[in-house]
Amino acid sequence: MELTTIYNKHYNKDIAHAKLTLWYNKIEKLGYGCFRTVTNTMQNNYETIFNYFINRKTNVFAGSFNAKIKGFRAQLRGVRDIPIL
């Protein structure tokens, strides 16, 4: 819930950075293994995550485009190239 609250508030990048760091440290101290994926993702993509708080923009276009490509590939799974006579 705390992580959701951070993202839902309109903080600037510096305040968001401080709040996310506090949240991250709190989770690390608790030692819950179920948050390992979230904390690893934050470590690997922290700069991109913090850029969200500048203009609250995401790369939705790229995500949507990738989803369309995956859907298209899923529909064609098992279809072979049939030569046209």
Question: What is this entry, summarized?
Answer:
By secondary structure, this protein is mainly α. The chain has helices spanning 2-8, 13-30, 36-44, 46-55, 60-75. The protein has one domain (2-75).
Question: What would the keywords be for this entry?
Answer:
about 80 residues, single chain, about 70% helix, mainly alpha
Uncertain runs are: none
| Derived structural class | mainly alpha
The profile of the biggest β sheet is:
none
Q: Figure out the total of helices.
A: 5
* Global Rg: 19 Å
| Overall mean confidence score, pLDDT | 77
Distance between the termini: 61 Å
Q: Number of domains in the coordinates? A: 1
The outline comes out as elongated
Order of helices and strands: HHHHH
β-strand number: 0
Tell me the helix content.
over 70%
Q: DSSP strand (E) fraction?
A: under 5%
Descriptive account of the structure:
The mean pLDDT is 77. It is elongated and about 65 Å long. The chain has helices spanning 2-8, 13-30, 36-44, 46-55, 60-75. With 85 residues, the chain is mainly alpha-helical. The longest helix has 18 residues, at 13-30. It is built from five helices and no strands. The chain has one domain.
